[in-house]
Amino acid sequence: MTACISARELEEAGAVLAAESARFASFGWMRGTSGNLSMVLSRAPLRLAVTASGHDKGELTPRDVVLVDGQGAAVHGGRPSAEAELHARVAALTGAGAVVHVHTVASVAMGRREPGGIVFRDLEMLKGVGQPAHDVEVTLPVIANSQDMSELGDRLEAARNPGMPAVVVAGHGLYVWGADPRQARHHTEVVEWLLELELFRR
Amino acid sequence: MTACISARELEEAGAVLAAESARFASFGWMRGTSGNLSMVLSRAPLRLAVTASGHDKGELTPRDVVLVDGQGAAVHGGRPSAEAELHARVAALTGAGAVVHVHTVASVAMGRREPGGIVFRDLEMLKGVGQPAHDVEVTLPVIANSQDMSELGDRLEAARNPGMPAVVVAGHGLYVWGADPRQARHHTEVVEWLLELELFRR
Amino acid sequence: MTACISARELEEAGAVLAAESARFASFGWMRGTSGNLSMVLSRAPLRLAVTASGHDKGELTPRDVVLVDGQGAAVHGGRPSAEAELHARVAALTGAGAVVHVHTVASVAMGRREPGGIVFRDLEMLKGVGQPAHDVEVTLPVIANSQDMSELGDRLEAARNPGMPAVVVAGHGLYVWGADPRQARHHTEVVEWLLELELFRR
Amino acid sequence: MTACISARELEEAGAVLAAESARFASFGWMRGTSGNLSMVLSRAPLRLAVTASGHDKGELTPRDVVLVDGQGAAVHGGRPSAEAELHARVAALTGAGAVVHVHTVASVAMGRREPGGIVFRDLEMLKGVGQPAHDVEVTLPVIANSQDMSELGDRLEAARNPGMPAVVVAGHGLYVWGADPRQARHHTEVVEWLLELELFRR
């Protein structure tokens, strides 16, 4: 079982991820060189394009991307973020085709206020993550941060709400996923909107 | 009585609505794929151009628009949002030539704080929705959300303040209308400004 | 004593004011069609270019400007805002070469909290309006709103702090002035920054 | 020991600083004409390019830059900001290759709340300034403001935390440094993000 991802395929994925990154960076969600985005290029074996580490996320080029396997290790060289392992795990676990990891102020602020999980209810915007707008409590899990990606992955797997394509990592930021980069973008925008709203809770 | 709306007319309306959508999206008022805009193309029978459902509202093209009748049903195919019915009803009820529906954080946050209606008073900005700037209380109605557009329309009709071209749908967002897309834009900006101000009320 | 302002001079002023307006509009300080800007073209007799009323302040062209006299009346036709009278009065009273009137949320929110005037102290940013950064209290006056420009002008004249090129009109917005449009811009940015800071006062 | 900085070298540095300034200005961190940026061009003797005083920081050209020595005095003419002296001192003291001075609302608001220093802990974003994300308290020093750059420099030197490339000047703004303009930018974004987060502390 081999995955032949051509350089061109990888660069096309890099162009998509660079555009999505620039968009999130313009919102202030990737300050410094924080955050990273990925896109699944093959399922069996699992291969993802992940944005390269250490770059300004508003200035990526189509080549600032690394091909990684299901453990987040580089397949053909390059320097993926340590978090590539978690991207790969989210893709394997959820079947997502794209994963967004951003550092938003609202996610960290709300994660502090509601360390046991952030509950939303009766909000039309919940439909944007596939939930009903009425009469149902939807929890966005909050998990403790770790530098051990395997530990962080275990926490994500244990805490994950199948009805919510996102997890807050306390003191850190947001992981969000979707079928493709555009859906992952929309899920990210919806979850961030929900968090910004709840900051106004009294 | 027939309404002959040419493909070109519809596409011209689509270009206007795409530009207005991109503007609102840049403000963060149409996160995910939320919200929709419409423009009346004929009064008798009522025909509106409504933005197509499911698209990113910052990336619409002039063709991402559907022609609907007074019940919000597609006249020549395409997939209007379920909310097209409410757009048509607002246009019929108020005589408006354009309707804006956006999901702003301020409208949902203030709708939660003031579920009985949000009262403004002594604000120059009220002139932007045709009200006096002094000594008059102006109420922005808040109605309960529903997935039944007919029920939501009844609530809007019952709660509507003839002196305020807008309604907050609780847990959902804002409907605003005007004589044409530009006036609807200005009304939307004014109402949102008023809501953002009131979030600072102590 | 006559003031011969050529059509070209007026249009050049219009180009400057259109660019300044677009800038302020991009900050959200001129929502709807609110606010207006002016520039002195002649001192004796007093002649100002004032942005035309009713336009979107992000979309002005160099021609969307009216020549007014010291009473704010149109010299060669066109429709100045009623507030042109106040612009002219500020220019006469203070010697300013440019006047900015914007509707910012922070100015109205702070005017509500501190109706007797907003006091700043020990802030480096005060140097941006010509004040010392240390040990001096600087008051930004707040005056009651009025639709009578003559009354509003009397209040501004009575309340004005010669050491602060700005006044908050309660429930309305901000008047700021400077030697030329660029200095008026900088004064506006400084005053708005100070107001946004004070919203965090506990 | 002489430092021969060519006009071309200085202008190249000016182009970099103009681009960085425009970026920070677009975030609202350099309102009015506030703030200044610098870049080390030679170490022995110390020579820095510093943005010229009094200009709009969103409109600098590559020539709006002054060459200064280790005391912040102009080497070949031009008008450096008085703060150039502090830039030079930070560069000498820390070995930084670039210094950013911006006036952010969050830095002044948090400096008021925590005049003894702002403590961060358990935040992934701390890695962006070279600190661990867990179990360590990291203090961002707050020093009193002064118009005497020598006094301000003494305070910075005395209060400086070697593990934090930034200092808040109370009632004034933020000094941040890094190995080069890009790293200084990233440090600035990270520190500002941390401050914006802490404004949500209850």
UniProtKB/TrEMBL annotation, chains A, B, C, D:
Gene Ontology MF terms: methylthioribulose 1-phosphate dehydratase activity; zinc ion binding
Note on cofactor: Binds 1 zinc ion per subunit.
Cofactor annotation: Zn(2+)
Record carries keyword Zinc: yes
Residue ranges occupied by any Class II aldolase/adducin N-terminal domain in the UniProt entry: 15-199
Pfam families: Aldolase_II
Involved pathway(s): Amino-acid biosynthesis; L-methionine biosynthesis via salvage pathway; L-methionine from S-methyl-5-thio-alpha-D-ribose 1-phosphate: step 2/6
GO CC list: cytoplasm
Enzyme Commission no: 4.2.1.109
InterPro entries with a match to the protein in the record: Aldolase_II/adducin_N, Aldolase_II/adducin_N_sf, MethylthioRu-1-P_deHdtase_MtnB
EC class (word): lyase
Catalytic activity entry: 5-(methylsulfanyl)-D-ribulose 1-phosphate = 5-methylsulfanyl-2,3-dioxopentyl phosphate + H2O
Residues that, per the record, bind Zn(2+): H101, H103
Biological-process GO terms, alphabetical: L-methionine salvage from methylthioadenosine
Entry keyword set: Amino-acid biosynthesis, Lyase, Metal-binding, Methionine biosynthesis, Zinc
Family: Belongs to the aldolase class II family. MtnB subfamily.
Task of the protein: Catalyzes the dehydration of methylthioribulose-1-phosphate (MTRu-1-P) into 2,3-diketo-5-methylthiopentyl-1-phosphate (DK-MTP-1-P).
Stated name of the protein: Methylthioribulose-1-phosphate dehydratase
Protein species of origin: Streptomyces cellostaticus
